[in-house]
């Protein structure tokens, strides 16, 4: 089964069960300062899991692009990825545990859908902890459907509890489904969740029963919801009987392109080269999706841009390792031919890749060329150090010198170790790690406040800031022109950040005018109303839709003004918002600066 077939089957099945298909959202989340990227399929739906009404209804299904970078150093093994696709279906106060489990079981086992034999399936449920009891309800449903007791494992919080996307938000127990790939159990206690490697997780049903508040208390949700997630790459691997996600049709054309770009490396011939090819395949795929996103960031030294730069440079470094090992040269640009294949492969389900193809290729080429210059400088500096290093009979390069190459020239420690090995030396890695740790601690202490809140923060102040973004958006269009479009926002209970398209810095007079316009609307105490309509009706009514956003056929339109006809602002938005603008406080712009090419950023507070 291919990824395209799995995507199509999943959507078709849940639509047949009364679910509305909705669009996946941006990789760069709006209004959430707790994460840099969309990390799970449920992330964009948190406001609806907390109680907002979704314009498409109470049963939803989609596929969502995601990035997780916590295991970035593990990428290169058989399974870890930074970019992955999630299939998900949701119940917003509709069906709960029984309905979710019954549908999961049918999709997995029915010959019409995935047709997995019953004897290959096992499940886990939450064992209970503290004030949250054991999930006997889910276990009972699985037993009724035919899963025997010896293939149901009761596991603790670290295994079967889904926490909030940030520090607060909806959460609850989950029930995970596993596929058995072994011949014989590893022992009498071998059940789903066993670390022996014979049980592979294929799907996860999360039962949102609680909201974790700022005090760490789990409050029962008034409206219980279901959030499920099935990873496309992992499921395709299992269904095709492969041992690695990189051995499937998802990655075959990408790895072939890497082999061609490297000058002839063949996948499967050398474990170390295979690892490099897997790292390149994952990292270029992730970089292409970040750059191809409607809210794309460029490589930089902060935030999501820093992660992007790290992915690209790690791919470049492993590309150099491959080109050194073949007849191919290492001066040509390596990544963009691989990205072209990725765009061609995935432009169907993700048309934004084709729309932004030129930007993806140009940014990859620019960053790769820049990093190659960095590497050449670092190699020259190493050559300068070499005569003195060779005088040491121990043949050990001090870690502080290796860190200087890293800190001053951006030269990766792995390359320093490689150059040292070529001279019969080793690097004092412990000394380097100590210096690097001190550098990290200093960076953290200088990075400022760690913000809490985000999509799950529906406190009055955060909601006020969300409402204020609408006022600011309209004010900027009045002052600067209709070319202004929101490119993203980041909100906490303490401040707001608003990115918008504009090609030049705002003048002091323009900034003051924007403040005055927003404060005038706050003083007027305008009502905020919401209507549900089609996207075409919304645009006909004068509503602004966010730049590059994908919308469902039915959307929410928030109007700030005395009536739908007499309004100050009208935007397509998911919410939440204040009921009136009065009482928000005084709006003040703290800073206006560049965010990226053609995009400006405003930081503001409500005092």
Q: What is the strand content?
A: 15-25%
The coarse silhouette is: globular
Distance from first to last alpha carbon: 56 Å
Alpha-carbon Rg, integer: 26 Å
CATH architecture of the largest domain: 2-Layer Sandwich
Which sheet architecture does the biggest sheet show?
Answer: 9 strands, mixed
Query: If helices are DSSP runs of H or I spanning 4 or more residues, what is the number of helices?
Result: 18
Please indicate the count of domains: 4
CATH superfamily name of the largest domain?
Bira Bifunctional Protein, Domain 2
Low-confidence segments, given as residue ranges, are 327-331, 446-455
* Number of beta-strand segments: 18
CATH topology of the largest domain: BirA Bifunctional Protein, domain 2
Helix content: 25-40%
Average pLDDT score: 89
Q: What is the CATH first-level class name of the largest domain?
A: Alpha Beta
Protein structure class? alpha+beta
Overview of this protein structure:
The chain is an alpha+beta fold. It is built from 18 helices and 18 strands. It has four domains: 3-242, 2-Layer Sandwich (BirA Bifunctional Protein, domain 2); 251-389, no CATH class; 391-452, no CATH class; 460-606, Threonyl-tRNA Synthetase, Chain A, domain 2 (2-Layer Sandwich). Strand 6 (161-162) and strand 7 (169-180) form a beta hairpin. Helix 3 runs parallel beside helix 4 (136-145), helix 8 (271-292) packs antiparallel against helix 9 and helix 8 packs across helix 12. Residues 327-331 and 446-455 have low confidence and may be disordered.
């Amino acid at each position: 089964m291919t990824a395209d077939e799995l995507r199509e089957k999943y959507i078709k099945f849940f639509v047949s069960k009364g679910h509305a298909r909705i669009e996946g959202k941006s990789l760069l989340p709006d209004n959430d300062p707790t994460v840099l990227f969309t990390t799970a399929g449920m992330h964009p739906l948190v406001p609806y899991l907390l109680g907002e009404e979704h314009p498409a209804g109470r049963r939803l299904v989609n596929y969502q692009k995601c990035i997780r970078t916590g295991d970035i150093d593990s990428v290169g093994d058989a399974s870890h990825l930074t970019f992955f696709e999630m299939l998900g279906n949701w119940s917003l106060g509709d069906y709960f545990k029984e309905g979710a489990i019954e549908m999961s079981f049918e999709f997995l086992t029915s010959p019409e859908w995935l047709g997995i034999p019953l004897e290959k399936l096992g499940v886990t449920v939450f064992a209970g902890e503290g004030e949250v009891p054991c999930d006997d309800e889910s276990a009972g449903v699985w037993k009724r459907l035919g899963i025997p007791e010896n293939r149901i494992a009761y596991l603790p919080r670290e295994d079967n509890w889904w926490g909030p996307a940030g520090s607060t938000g909806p959460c609850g127990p989950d029930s995970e489904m596993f596929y058995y790939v072994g011949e014989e159990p590893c022992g009498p206690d071998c059940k789903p969740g066993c670390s022996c490697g014979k049980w592979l997780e294929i799907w996860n049903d999360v039962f949102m029963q609680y909201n974790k508040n700022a005090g760490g208390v789990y409050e029962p949700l008034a409206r219980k919801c279901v959030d499920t997630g099935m990873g496309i790459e992992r499921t395709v691997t299992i269904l095709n009987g492969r041992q690695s996600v990189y051995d499937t049709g998802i990655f075959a054309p990408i790895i072939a392109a890497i082999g061609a770009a490297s000058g002839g490396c063949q996948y499967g011939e050398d474990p170390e080269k295979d690892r490099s090819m897997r790292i390149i395949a994952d990292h270029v795929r992730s970089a292409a999706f970040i750059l191809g996103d409607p809210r794309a960031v460029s490589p930089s030294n902060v935030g999501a841009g820093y992660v992007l730069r790290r992915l690209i440079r790690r791919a470049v470094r492993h590309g150099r390792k491959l080109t050194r090992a073949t007849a191919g040269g290492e001066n040509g640009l390596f990544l963009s031919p691989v990205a072209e294949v990725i765009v061609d492969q995935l432009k169907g389900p993700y048309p934004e890749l084709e729309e932004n193809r030129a930007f993806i290729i140009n940014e990859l080429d620019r960053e790769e060329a820049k990093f190659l210059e960095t590497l050449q400088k670092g190699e020259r500096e190493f050559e300068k150090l070499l005569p003195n290093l060779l005088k040491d009979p121990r043949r050990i390069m001090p870690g502080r010198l290796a860190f200087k190459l890293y800190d001053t020239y951006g030269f990766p420690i792995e390359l320093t170790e490689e150059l040292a090995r070529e001279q019969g030396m080793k690097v004092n890695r412990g000394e380097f790690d100590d210096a690097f740790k001190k550098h990290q601690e200093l960076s953290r202490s200088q990075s400022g406040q760690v913000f809490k809140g985000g999509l799950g923060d529906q406190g009055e102040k955060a909601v006020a800031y969300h409402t204020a973004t609408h006022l600011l958006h309209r004010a900027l269009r009045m002052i600067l022109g209709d070319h202004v479009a929101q490119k993203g926002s980041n909100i906490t209970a303490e401040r707001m950040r608003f990115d918008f398209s504009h090609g030049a810095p705002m003048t002091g007079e323009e900034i003051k005018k924007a403040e005055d316009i927003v404060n005038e609307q706050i003083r007027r105490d305008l009502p905020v109303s919401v209507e549900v309509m089609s996207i075409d009706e919304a645009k006909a009514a004068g509503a602004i839709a966010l730049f590059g956003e994908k919308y469902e056929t039915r959307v929410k339109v928030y109007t700030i003004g005395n009536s739908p006809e007499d309004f100050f602002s009208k935007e397509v938005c998911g919410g939440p918002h204040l009921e009136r603008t009065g009482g928000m406080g005084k709006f003040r712009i703290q800073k206006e600066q560049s965010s990226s090419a053609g995009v400006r950023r405003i930081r503001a507070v409500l005092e």
